[in-house]
Design goal:
Radius of gyration: 19 Å
Strand content: 5-15%
Structural class: mainly alpha
Mean pLDDT: 86
Low-confidence stretches: none
Number of helices: 5
Number of domains: 2
CATH topology of the largest domain: Rossmann fold
């Protein structure tokens, strides 16, 4: 796994993490199986760690030109919500290889299942067992 980001957005230490780090997206594009992008959370101050959103996009945004350099079977993923035009270009988000909408839909189902198991499954099972079911 390779993390690609400006140094200002990486944790202070990655010691013990089984990753390599790059500050150059273009240098790793041709080796990716999955390009998993994360939303730049400007509301949490991420934008204050960058010279500008334009510069971030120029260096780290998945543009159509960069997406064309991905290997044939490489997938594009993003957990949403997306900042179209910042971390991912709108036309790239709509490519067949972009699994963003499926990923978001599956994420909702997974979170619902986890919440059900954490909050309701045991109570429901106990009621069934008490009723002789």
């Amino acid at each position: 796994m390779t993390l690609v980001a400006p140094g200002s957005l990486l944790p202070p230490s990655l010691q013990g993490w089984p990753v390599t780090v790059s500050h150059d997206l273009d240098a790793v594009l041709d080796r990716l199986d999955v390009c998993y992008l994360l939303r730049l959370q400007t509301e949490r101050g991420a934008g204050s760690h960058l010279p500008s959103l334009r510069e971030y996009t120029a260096s780290f945004g998945l543009t159509a030109r960069r997406a064309a350099r991905l290997p044939a079977g490489a997938l594009v993923m993003h957990p949403g919500p997306m900042n179209r035009g910042v971390e991912i270009a709108a036309d790239v988000a709509d490519l067949p290889r972009a699994l963003v909408l499926r990923q978001v839909a599956n994420g909702v189902a997974v979170r619902m299942a986890v919440l059900y198991l954490l909050l309701g499954a045991d109570a429901g099972a106990a009621r069934l067992q008490a009723a002789g079911g």
